[in-house]
Design brief:
The chain has 367 residues and is of the alpha+beta class. The chain contains nine helices and twelve strands. The chain has helices at residues 6-26, 33-42, 46-52, 100-119, 131-154, 209-228, 240-262, 317-336, 348-366; strands at residues 62-65, 69-71, 74-83, 86-94, 171-174, 178-180, 183-192, 195-203, 279-282, 286-288, 291-300, 303-311. The strands form three sheets. Strands 1, 2, 3 and 4 form a four-stranded antiparallel β-sheet that branches. Helix 6 (209-228) packs parallel to helix 7 and helix 8 packs parallel to helix 9. It starts with 5 loop residues before the first helix and ends with a helix. The relative contact order is 0.09.
Length: 367
């Protein structure tokens, strides 16, 4: 058999190599390495982004409070704190109370809170022995996450319940009264420039040891609310019920501020921005230990031009106290342009009823 020439073999081998390289270059890879790498890197954080942001792309930071979920043993409501699309904190602002519910709530809620931060979604485990609470927690949590998703989808990235994102309107806003085991708690905030400049409790538990706890807790809570600019504040030790009620009412006030800011920007309960049209408004009747108190105000140019008590305690010493206190309260209301006025010494009950009815009138004027 005739052997091939060595030079011929070299030429043939070179041609085969070149052909192979050309063939490889003309073929597309079965997958995009860049896409594979992105998918691999996203697998660890996709849950957090989907939970807190919904994949919309705009960074979300803020506090979102979910809708209250009704359960067989009471309401459950969850608030989450999101920072750059990650859930950094989860807490139950409402949970079942009383009897064995206290034990189950104390057992379940801390575990649920921790699980949310760990898993970054509402796909968390039910706590054994607290099934109803767990299910309610997850429903409210999903609602909060949905609100975060909506915030990302709108491109605003605005937070709910924060002083900078939700309270855009300027003015005074009074939260809903929250019932606690020891009495009602109600908070009023003053907002200016998108920030909480003042917070105060217009209602707080009274009587017995409640007086001491209120005196200890409320000033701290007021300071915390202004400093944090949100309802995401710490509870005061030994005044847990008052603290929780305070935070819920504070969140309600912030929600009202956000609603006002999203609408016309008019303030509620302020003398400068809430009531531009001239009108006369009568507040709700407030029952006191010595009789009902009801206030009527006249508002013009966004200011209180007149305040008067259409009902006040009468009879016996009450008549004297009413004659002493009401004119002073009327003058204070006009001067302050709000319900943030001092009580008249010796007529505490009448003063408190007056301020509550005045605030009710201001709320109506601002609406």
């Amino acid at each position: 058999m005739r052997k091939s020439h060595p030079l011929r073999r070299v030429v043939l081998a070179t041609a085969a190599t070149v052909s192979g390289i050309v063939l490889l270059l003309t073929l597309k890879p079965a997958s995009d390495p860049g896409a594979t790498q992105a998918a691999d890197s996203g697998s660890g954080t996709g849950t957090a982004q989907e939970a807190a942001q919904g994949g919309a792309g705009a960074p979300v930071s803020g506090t979102m409070t979910g809708d209250a979920a009704q359960t067989q043993y009471g309401n459950v409501q969850v608030r989450i704190t999101v920072v750059n699309n990650k859930i950094t904190k989860s807490e139950a602002v409402q949970a079942p109370k009383g009897g064995t519910s206290d034990q189950k709530t104390a057992l379940a809620v801390p575990k649920l809170n921790a699980d949310v931060v760990a898993k970054q979604s509402a796909k968390i485990d039910t706590v054994s022995g607290a099934t109803y609470t767990s299910e309610g927690y997850k429903k409210s949590l999903q609602s909060a996450i949905d609100k975060a998703n909506a915030s990302a989808g709108s491109g605003s990235g605005a937070s709910q319940g924060s002083g900078s994102g939700s309270a855009q309107a300027a003015g005074a806003f009074t939260g809903d009264a929250v019932q606690t085991q020891y009495g009602n708690v109600q908070v009023r905030i003053t907002v200016a420039g998108g920030k909480i400049t003042k917070a105060e409790a217009v209602q707080a538990p009274k009587g017995g040891t409640s007086d001491q706890k209120t005196a200890l807790a409320v000033p701290k809570l007021n300071q915390e609310a202004v400093a944090a600019g949100s309802a995401d504040i710490d509870s005061v030790s030994s005044a847990t019920y008052t603290s929780e009620g305070y935070k819920k009412s504070l969140q309600s006030a912030l929600d009202k501020a956000k609603t006002a800011g999203a609408g016309s920007g008019a303030s509620q309960g302020s003398g400068s921005g809430g009531a531009q049209a001239a009108k006369t408004v009568t507040g709700k009747v407030q029952q006191t230990q010595y009789g009902p108190v009801q206030v009527r105000i006249t508002v013009a140019g966004g200011k209180i031009t007149k305040a008067e008590a259409v009902q006040a305690p009468s009879g016996g010493t009450s008549s004297q106290k009413t004659e002493l206190s009401v004119p002073k309260l009327n003058q204070e209301a006009v001067a302050a342009g709000s319900a943030d006025i001092d009580s008249v010494s010796g007529a505490t009950y009448t003063s408190d009823g007056y301020k509550k009815s005045l605030q009710s009138a201001l709320d109506q004027a601002g609406g």
